[in-house]
Description:
Layout: E1 14-18, E2 24-30, H1 34-43, E3 54-61, H2 71-97, E4 102-105, H3 124-132, E5 136-137, E6 143-144, E7 153-160, H4 164-177, E8 181-182
Antiparallel strand pairs: 1-2, 1-8, 2-3, 3-7, 4-7, 5-6
Helix pairs in contact: 2-4
Amino acid sequence: MSYPKIFSFKKDYKINLVNERGEEIQISIHSPTPYIRDNCHRILPDWDSKLRMSVAIVLQQSQFTLTESSPRIEAEKHRLRFIFMKFACDVAFDLKDKKYLTDLIDPRTGYPLLSRPGQISHDDTAAVKALLKYPIICNKCRVLIHPEWGTAIYPSILISAAPKIIFSQTIQTNAILHGWEQVK
């Protein structure tokens, strides 16, 4: 007698995109790091630490390596921060309209943009290291090493109480509205 094969199904919450300039954007959705779980009330004081939440890591490919500090590099960081903030605000407000608590972490300050700031800041680089296992170069500003982009990487974080599937769908919808295309 033959039995049907059983396959376990695990939804992959990875989204690979490219913008109109040809720069890649990689977004992945994860359970929060132990640091976020243990310090939720200190990072996001208005949030209930018992909420089921997810963390979306948004990685943007930079035009330059971000290991040095110069006016050109600072302008690039400012450009990438602006792109993230515009995109993440759209995602956050869409999810808030659906009654899901959502916030974005300002990559420059480490504090939430839409909630009251807490006692401590969030470290986007540490979250990426913990969740994606990317190595870090420690100099004046800690820089991630992406497996394909090297140090030409700009990380940022969105946090939401939305289920991962809704979080993912909202991210993908807004990516299209921002002119980002799915990488085949």
